[in-house]
Amino acid sequence: MKILIIEDEFRNYNRLRRMLTAYDSTMTIEGPLESVAEARQWLAVHQGTAAPDLVFADIRLSDGISFDALDMLDDATSLVFTTAYDEYALRAFQYNGLAYLMKPIEEEELHQTLDRVLKLHGDNRQDKSSDMQGLKEIVAQMRIDNYQYRERFLIPYKDGFEIVNVNDVSFICTEHKDTRVYLNTRKFYSLSMSLDELERQLNPHHFFRINRQYIVHIGSVAGLKIYFGGKLRVHLKDHNEIELMCSRERAPLLKEWLNQ
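The structure assignment produced for this chain is given below.
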């Protein structure tokens, strides 16, 4: 069986690859493809007999969402999403016979999914094209109704609320177990949300998760400096006192994000 992994977190890719190899050491595993552009380029070449039998796809990638590449999948290819997404979408996937695995992926769930995929391929089902059509319809509907990135924050402040447009945000960080959104004016507000939640809600073309503690707006990045071990130092406009460190693994994604 030929498997393709679309995933922009190398740690997640390595973990999934190890579990797949443990399940069946004869599998051919391709990837990881870390961006929509890379996935589209790979799938454009690998069609017909060269197409993968199974694709594991994360939804959120460095340059957008994987849906924008999945419409190029061969009709005979099975698809498994490896991400957390909203309840409506998960019900839709389930109804149409499409699999999903919540991260972190559990080995038992992965094995059950692989057993199911192998059975479908063994049965040589005739309705695979209808499954793909179901996927395409779901993706189109989600683009219209269910994948709207956050545009503003309604933040409790003193005896009322203030509205903050995401375009006015310089960066978001965690400080002393508190999530804070800093504006270009240097003013900040506290939010009752985690960085993981915010990362899923913010447009990846405009916001990037530098590390565990910081998410930055693309307009707030003043420049990068190369640091020891392949890391990058990130300098922010109007916040000279803050110096962020981007890991060697995420550095290529950061440079690609800034160069788009």
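Interim note for the steering committee: The CA atoms of residues 51 and 74 lie 6 Å apart. The first helix runs from residue 10 to 23.
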